[in-house]
Design brief:
Distance between the termini: 77 Å
Strand order of the largest sheet: 1-2-11-8-13-6-3
Strand content: 25-35%
Largest sheet: 7 strands, antiparallel
Order of helices and strands: HEEHEEEHEEEEEEEE
Shape: globular
Number of helices: 3
Number of strands: 13
CATH superfamily: Alpha-ketoglutarate-dependent dioxygenase AlkB-like
CATH topology: Jelly Rolls
Length: about 240
């Protein structure tokens, strides 16, 4: 039997070490990251909740964006938003020199926003129910596309008419750092790494919490390529 040379011994040891390290990493990750994580009163993070339906969601997004293409909206102050946006449902969130608001028609085409797909509607309802909001019915979905460097500064969702309904936010594609604070801009902000399929739901005491997304890091995801998609379901009207 031939004795392995020094190079082969080092390679074998490295493979064994890497195998142990990788296994330990995933075991540690799974043990430390719960499937359900309370992030604030009325706010919950559902890890991988949309993972199984991600491909179907992306297929439905293709025809939504074909009918209502992504665009970079302008803030009332005249700044171009770094995040590409489109909408589906009865109402769509828009921003321009006139302010932030919902409108039943796409300002680019003058046509109604695309109908919300059944896959979107069912996911929003099931996630809200899992988080303790069984009566949630979404009539609007703001779809954000983050490319490397894009970010969303801390803000409150205040353009909806009914604050008793929660917000349901679905992450697809590249990971992102979600920032979640309190009802005052001065409150401490916590940060959560969101992976593809993670869903955050917040309402009740946290409905008007400040939240945002840190600048997206570059990467390549098999589902979305070099971007992150965020589906944000609301009851706007």
């Amino acid at each position: 039997m031939q004795t392995p040379g020094p190079g082969q011994q080092r390679q074998s040891a490295r493979k064994k070490r890497d195998s142990v390290t990788t296994g330990s990493f995933y075991s540690l990750f799974e043990s430390e990251v719960p499937e359900r994580e309370i992030i604030a009163s009325g706010a919950i993070l559902l890890r991988r909740f949309a993972f199984e339906s991600a491909s179907e969601l992306m297929r439905d997004l293709d025809w939504i964006s074909a009918a209502a293409p992504f665009r970079h909206m302008i803030t009332p102050g005249g700044f171009r938003m770094s995040v590409g946006m489109t909408n589906c449902g009865y109402a769509g969130w828009i921003s321009d020199r006139k302010g932030y608001r919902y409108d039943s028609r796409d300002p680019l085409s003058g046509k109604p926003w695309p109908v919300m797909p059944e896959s979107f509607r069912l996911l929003a309802h099931s996630a809200a129910t899992e988080a303790g909001y069984p009566d949630f019915v979404s009539d609007a979905c703001l779809i954000n596309r983050y490319e490397p460097g894009a970010r969303l500064t801390l803000h409150q969702d205040r353009n909806e008419q009914d604050y008793t309904a929660p917000i349901v936010s679905v992450s697809l594609g590249l990971p992102a750092v979600f920032q979640f604070g309190g009802n005052s801009r001065k409150d401490k902000v916590r940060r959560f790494k969101l992976e593809s399929g993670d869903v955050v739901v917040w309402g009740r005491e946290s409905r008007l919490a400040y939240h945002g997304v840190a600048a997206l890091k570059d990467g390549d995801h098999p589902l979305t390529g070099r971007c992150r998609i965020n589906l944000t379901f609301r009851k706007a009207l």
